[in-house]
Design goal:
The protein is α/β, with parallel strands linked by helices. It folds into two domains: 262 residues, 3-Layer(aba) Sandwich (Aldehyde Dehydrogenase, Chain A, domain 1), CATH 3.40.605.10; 185 residues, Aldehyde Dehydrogenase, Chain A, domain 2. The strands form six sheets. The protein has a seven-stranded mixed sheet with strand order 14-15-16-13-12-18-19, sandwiched between helices. The protein has a six-stranded mixed sheet with strand order 9-8-7-10-11-21, with helices on both faces. Helix 8 links the parallel strand 10 and strand 11. Helix 3 crosses helix 4. The chain is globular. Bound molecules: nicotinamide-adenine-dinucleotide. The site of nicotinamide-adenine-dinucleotide has 31 residues, from helix 7 and helix 8.
């Protein structure tokens, strides 16, 4: 397949003049394309063009902008076959999951197309009755969207769709591992004024150059906590607006009331939450706490289910888990697994190459008998690993879940209403899923407590992240106010 490898700058497709990026297929370890990164001059050209593009875009009425965003969503859906194939080739995620991702990506454009023409601000009670006081929402100006490789289009859309809907220009910087699916979107932006959306490629240096450019008003980032923290330090120097979605160490709790068929379902739900996209989801379940009374049957059911999972060619519709994205990500997960085993944990299942000769495959792992301080229970793994730990009741489970510097998501299985409400109240996480792990909803905010992030994506909050708030105070009369000078005379 011939891939689109050119950047979109100021409405034109151009070869990246910076260092080339070799894009690898993680299932075959072959280089499938070479993409030139954006040079320093091209980064500057993009930020310059964004200024004009933004003015032209914001001058289009909200209802018309909404129609153009719906058109984008339609274009995405129409391109599902082609784009999903590219995503699978560069990222290794199973084709079926990439097709879903495109559907969710299109849905985000549809959602924000409508939300943005509804939410313009509000009228508030004025100081004097004859006045008009308004709170209005304005675009930030130029926004940079820096995203990782695990959901390259969805995580871009959670920024691009609301930022555009709010009237911003957006410069997109995909991960150096997965630039192809983003660059393939270029034709979708033909109907927008030149410079409104620009697609760059490059590694961290291109991201850093965009973060430091004084013409960039807002930075929306998804990625690791280390990179996000570094970006925050730089951005705060010039008070660029920030929205950060970072790492996690999500817990899944199985309460003692869950038994029989429900326990079997909880085991299957937990396996999906831990292994989806080979565990490379920001909200992957990375710690499973099971009430001691249900521990043994839960582990048994989990193991039996894990044994049925198919690891292999991500283009095969019957594949459950594809390869991990890169040798480095696999090595990081394997190092954590090895350290856990060296520390006394039992490797109950997986950890091998699942019979594959090439590709960054890691057969889904189950770990038990973990020491409480095991690194695999505290640091983000981002791989197909399920550490299962027995706990003495819900209090202990919530305490363990909350004893983390991260707070992105948390999951609970329970049939007890009081336990569900208490978990919802006490878990320190941006999303708490009860009996339905990892289900996203465009209308609800997504983001993290603590070191998992700053700000929210999705929902009305995700639109406000790309808006400035202005208070306009209008007095139709020109008259002296009694509280002016002179005082007391
Ligand atoms: P990463 O932090 O290495 O890279 C993310 C992006 O930042 C890439 O585009 C990269 O090129 C860019 N970048 C790197 N250094 C930069 C710098 N100094 N300045 C500006 N940009 C820079 O993360 P990754 O390995 O691509 O993704 C995995 C991480 O993403 C995991 O930690 C995961 O938890 C996190 N993640 C979070 C969410 C969420 O919504 N909270 C979603 C998905 C992934």
């Amino acid at each position: 397949m011939a891939h689109a490898t050119r950047l979109l700058i100021d409405g034109a497709l151009v070869e990246g003049a910076g260092p080339p990026l070799a894009v690898e297929n993680p299932a075959t370890e072959e280089t499938i394309a070479t993409v030139g990164s954006a040079s320093a001059e091209q980064v500057e050209a993009a930020t310059r063009a964004a200024r004009d593009g933004q003015r032209a875009w914001a001058a289009i009425a909200a209802a018309e902008r909404a129609e153009l965003l719906h058109e984008l969503a339609r274009g995405l859906r129409d391109g599902t076959d082609e784009i999903a194939a590219i995503m699978t080739a560069e990222g290794g995620k199973p084709l079926v999951e990439n097709r879903d991702e495109i559907g969710w990506t299109a849905a985000a454009f549809d959602f924000y197309a409508e939300l943005a023409r509804l939410q313009t601000g509000r009228v508030i009670p004025p100081v004097e009755v004859h006045q008009l006081a308004m709170v209005v929402k304005e675009p930030l100006g130029t926004v940079v969207a820096i995203v990782p490789w695990n959901y390259p289009l969805l995580l871009l859309a959670w920024k691009l769709a609301p930022a555009l809907a709010a009237g911003n220009a957006v410069i997109c910087k995909p991960s150096e591992l997965t630039p192809l699916s983003t660059l393939a979107l270029a034709p979708l932006f033909d109907a927008l004024p030149a410079g409104t959306v620009q697609l760059l490629a490059g590694a961290g240096d291109v991201g850093a150059a965009l973060v430091d450019d004084p013409r960039v008003d807002g930075i929306a980032f998804t990625g690791s906590t280390a990179t996000g923290t570094a970006i925050a330090h730089r951005a705060v120097e010039r008070m660029a607006r920030l929205n950060l979605e970072m790492g996690g160490k999500d817990a899944l709790i199985v309460c003692g009331d869950v038994d029989g068929e429900a326990l079997q379902i909880a085991a299957e739900g937990a396996a999906w939450a831990a292994y989806l996209n080979a565990g490379q989801v920001c909200t992957s379940t990375e710690r499973i706490y099971v009430d001691r009374r249900r521990y043994e049957p839960f582990v048994e059911a989990f193991l039996a289910h894990a044994r049925t999972l198919r690891v292999g060619d991500p283009t095969d519709p019957a594949t459950d888990l594809g390869p991990m994205v890169s040798a480095a990500q696999r090595a990081k997960a394997v190092a954590q697994i090895d350290a856990a085993v060296a520390g006394g944990a039992t490797l109950l299942h997986g950890g091998d190459r699942a019979g594959q000769e090439r590709g960054h495959y890691l057969a889904p792992v189950i770990l038990t008998d973990l020491p409480e301080a095991a690194t695999i229970l505290t640091e983000e793994t981002f791989g197909p690993v399920a550490p299962i730990v027995p706990v003495d009741g819900l209090d202990a489970a919530i305490a363990l879940a909350n004893a983390s510097p991260y707070g992105l998501g948390a999951n609970v299985y329970t049939t007890d209403l009081e336990s569900a409400l208490r978990a919802g109240r006490e878990l320190k996480a941006g999303t708490v899923w009860i009996n339905d792990p990892l289900t996203d909803n465009d209308a609800g905010p997504f983001g993290g407590f603590k070191r998992s992030g700053l700000g929210r994506e999705l929902g009305p909050e995700g639109l406000e992240a790309f808006q400035e708030t202005k208070h306009i105070h209008l007095d139709p009369r020109i008259e002296r106010k009694e509280w002016w000078y002179p005082y007391g005379r």
